[in-house]
Amino acid sequence: MAALGGCLLLRHDEKVETFTGFVETHEAKLRSALTAALGAEVGREAAAEAMGYAWAHWDRVSVMENPIGYLYRVGRNLGGRMHRRRRILLPSPEAVSEPWVEPGLPAALAGLSERQRVVVWLLHSADWSMGEVAGFLGISKASVQRHAQRGMGKLRSTMGVTA
Amino acid sequence: MNEDLRSQLKHYTRVVSSRQTPITAAEARALEGAVRPVLEDLPRRVPTLRRGIATAIAAAAAVLLLAGGAVWLVRSSASDIAREAGATTSASTPQSPDTPGGLIVPQDLQAPVLDGLSLATNGTPAPDVAGSVLADDASAPLPLGLVTTLPASVRLDFLFEFCWFSPCFRDAHFMDPGGTGLGSGVFTADTPFYIREGFVNAGDEPLAEGFDVAVYVTELDAPGKAGRSVGPTYRYTSDYVIRGSSEACGPTYETQTGPVTCEWFVHEFKDGLPAGRHAVWVVWEAPCSAWLDYGFTGSCADPNEIISLFSSGFDAPFGPFPPDYSEANEAILSADELAARWQAQGQASGPGVFYECTGAEPPQGVAPSAGTGEGSPQIPIAAVTLQGAAFMERADPVEAYKWGCGFVVEPESLIDGLFFPRSQYWDEGAVWWDTNDGQERWIELDLGAVFTIDAAVVQADDNDSYLLSYRDLASGEWVTMWSIPPSYAFGMQTRPNPDDNTARQMIDPPIRTNRLRFEADQGDNLYSVSEIQVFGTASG
User: Mean of the pLDDT values across residues B441-468?
Assistant: First the structure.
């Protein structure tokens, strides 16, 4: 393994091994974030493409300080083009066999700004800390907190929940 | 109840994720050759002038406005932009076309700026970005708060955040306390000011090498009008770069109140701008490799190719009014706070609004004069409806987003047979909408019967592409019959020929349908259409 201009040059088997480990570790996070941003279908597709991008550029991506945040941006760009023509599609609670969840929740989530939705989603789906979300999105913790507060406020308002 | 909502959120989001098929390394590797480039096949976009930052700052909605501008892309060759590293030159006021120091680019805003980028730069050189150091270092350029070469009382801030992806490329504060609302007012003519544009980063990683900001300035013909240029347009590259962190970054948008690092590209206008209304707009420039680092593209055909990214623009009056502005006041003030300041100075209101709407009612279009169009008769459209998410309403969002007067008109105006003058503001008399929320919107046109359509004409916002589709009678599917390209200029532009509202786009072969659908394809997320006409014959 040799460093060259900020890139790691890896043998193929090493590359496969490190990339596989990377995917196993980070795939769920990336998919979750892009699902929040782009909807269930497009988000999953964008995450897959972002991971494909990571593989294609593994020498560079593997040495990044925040590769998953970078891939989120890549996926967001790739998926954004699909997403622009579609609504934010989130499955109904019935569709995921969770009828006790308020049926209006997916629509309420879709009605948030993208940043609010991503922050709210990440904080709740996997118990990310505000610091983790901030690092992931490349914004300050204060911003994360603000987005979360506003997002939750809008959700409560939309769903008629009194805090 | 609140906890119940959180519980439901937690459960729902987890279940949605768990229902997806996890991505395996093998799947990702198999996609290696199929990963689509992001930048290469986006349409070439030319930055056209739009006003609005000043107004938009009054609310968080500015975020959406600027996000819309973020995707305007221009390409030019690396050789088009001179880079004399290390040199520092001040931009000069565009007093006349012969003024040295500024590159004169297109003679009119109607001309594509792309042409300007192809001219050799003989004005201010690009800064030595790579050679700069953080402002925390003693040898670094002066941090923002210590800049003393310009009177702080006449400063024009123009702050941007380059966030993580295009919807986040946004955030401008047009810090003009001379107005009753943020961003409203008149700037003082012939008085020095400077403009800064910058990146605000959450971390401490500086920008990649090669970033620069180009500022374009042109004089407009009259306040509150459609923004036509009456003189040459000048292009400036940065005079110097300031790097710093936290407080040194100055006031930033509320989403960047935490620890940040910043890099401001500063343009000095030591002679100010002459009295009149001026348009200023800003374009980021960087090698493709630098955009790559930001995830804006998947690959670069030429890593050194300079890619430009429109940032934002505004137009504003410059006059004899003395603004009240200082570093101490460099804060985000509410409209009420500003009003209180004005009252304290014995003035009931500010020096004048940023934009004077000409009336309380939206303007009416006019019937097209004789032109080149001929052929089948115009098909009467029975009904037009707005579908999907909400279009613009004349409420707070309008006040925040509007660039013109933000009039909201009935959808039927789309089929009234009337066209606006070329370059009418996009939100003055047209049906307009904002897709920064990611929601889908479209317009349906019910012909009331089946027709064979052989031609169409549309007047729509200049810098976007649109789709006109028809419902296939056999399948019920929507099929694109005309992919309407941008027509770069300013505001409303008729397609296919902006100069001739009667010129038709032929639909070949003709199609049969009873319903049409009009929707935005690609653009700045701020879309607008004022007239849709189709031509053909009844088809039983």
Answer: 92
